[in-house]
């Protein structure tokens, strides 16, 4: 049994506490709630990182 | 703090992982720490290593490797350490196994050195997650760091004692600020991302997401490459303008 990150355990707990609406939405997208959230965070982090590196490169030139 | 068997366990894991089904995951995970900077600067990893120096490059590589072995990137959230311990735990000393398990549970974060206890350890404040300062048994670090230094590191808890993992990035103040800004804004921006993409979300669902995004460990779990990329970009900046920067 793999160890899940603490935040993912919270997602699972919270999903259990909510009504079925949460699970239905995630299932409709073929994702777990944790995946939906993690993907949104990753998209933001990637965009922010790329913007910052671009700013630095432009500053250098 | 020296953990008997830790170094050997890491070496054996590093030798084992690329041979097994983790090879491709490993390659992609390591590349993720370098590709944004290399693409932005129009250079290869080799050229980057040459400009910043082998020692700096290897430090970033060690962080990237720790990110690979700690993230749950396999199916069902399993990762390479879980797999390795299932198959090879018998080869490792208790200390080695404990070290790998502690590493597996760790997250990279940005810490400020609140106090240095020479020859003994450090007191660190987590600038991203907050909370009470942490006492860390770190003799070597206590000699190289000073109060107010900011480091990207993983604090491991083994048998009730805290120590740092092997890969530690020392940040200059302005680079540390960039890291902090990105992580502080992560929950709000991720919320905007989700709202824009999932327009049919119910109010209840939005509330649940808000509650979850308040947990900064989500961003830390996904964002170890933020630390290495910003640190590498700053190292490159220093390497390219050493005279101007030291003024």
Describe this structure in words.
The complex is a heterodimer of chains A (61) and B (247). Chain A contains three helices and no strands. With 61 residues, chain A is an all-alpha fold. Chain A has helices spanning 6-17, 20-28, 33-60. With 247 residues, chain B is α+β, with helices and mostly antiparallel strands. In chain B, strands 1, 2, 3, 4, 5 and 6 form a six-stranded antiparallel β-sheet that branches. The longest helix of chain B has 25 residues, at 173-197. The two termini of chain B are 37 Å apart. Chain A binds chain B through residues 2-8, 10-11, 14-15, 18-19, 21-22, 25, 33, 36-38, 40-46, 48-50, 52-54, 56-57, 60, and chain B through 36-37, 40-41, 72, 74, 76-79, 82, 101, 104-105, 107, 178, 182, 185-186, 189-191, 193-194, 197-198, 201-202, 204-205, 208-209, 211-213, 215, 217-219, 221-223, 225-226, 229-230, 233, 237, 240.
């Amino acid at each position: 049994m793999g160890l899940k990150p603490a935040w993912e355990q919270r997602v699972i707990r919270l999903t259990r506490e909510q009504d079925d609406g949460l699970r239905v939405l995630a299932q409709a997208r073929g994702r777990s709630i944790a995946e939906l959230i993690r993907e949104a965070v990753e998209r933001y982090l990637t965009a922010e990182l790329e913007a910052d590196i671009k700013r630095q490169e432009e500053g250098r030139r | 703090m020296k953990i008997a068997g830790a170094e050997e366990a890491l070496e054996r894991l590093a030798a084992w992982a690329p041979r097994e089904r983790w090879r491709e995951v490993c390659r992609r995970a390591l590349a993720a720490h370098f590709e944004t900077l290399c693409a932005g600067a129009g250079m290869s990893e080799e050229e980057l290593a040459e400009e910043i120096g082998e020692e700096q490059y290897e430090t970033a590589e060690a962080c990237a490797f720790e990110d690979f072995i700690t993230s749950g990137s396999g199916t069902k959230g399993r990762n390479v350490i879980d797999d390795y311990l299932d198959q090879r735990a018998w080869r490792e000393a208790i200390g080695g196994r404990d070290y790998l398990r502690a590493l597996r549970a760790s997250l990279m974060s940005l810490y400020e050195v609140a106090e240095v206890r020479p020859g003994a350890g450090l007191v660190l404040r987590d600038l991203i997650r907050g909370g009470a300062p942490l006492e860390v048994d770190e003799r070597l670090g206590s000699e190289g760091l000073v109060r107010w230094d900011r480091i990207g590191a993983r604090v491991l808890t083994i048998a009730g004692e805290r120590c740092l993992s092997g890969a530690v990035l020392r940040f200059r103040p302005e680079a540390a600020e960039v890291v902090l800004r990105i992580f502080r804004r992560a929950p709000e921006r991720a919320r905007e991302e989700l709202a824009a993409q999932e327009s049919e979300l119910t109010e209840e669902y939005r509330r649940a997401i808000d509650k979850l995004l308040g947990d900064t460990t989500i961003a830390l779990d996904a964002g170890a490459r933020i630390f290495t990329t910003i640190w590498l970009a700053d190292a490159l900046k220093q390497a390219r303008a050493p005279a101007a920067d030291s003024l």
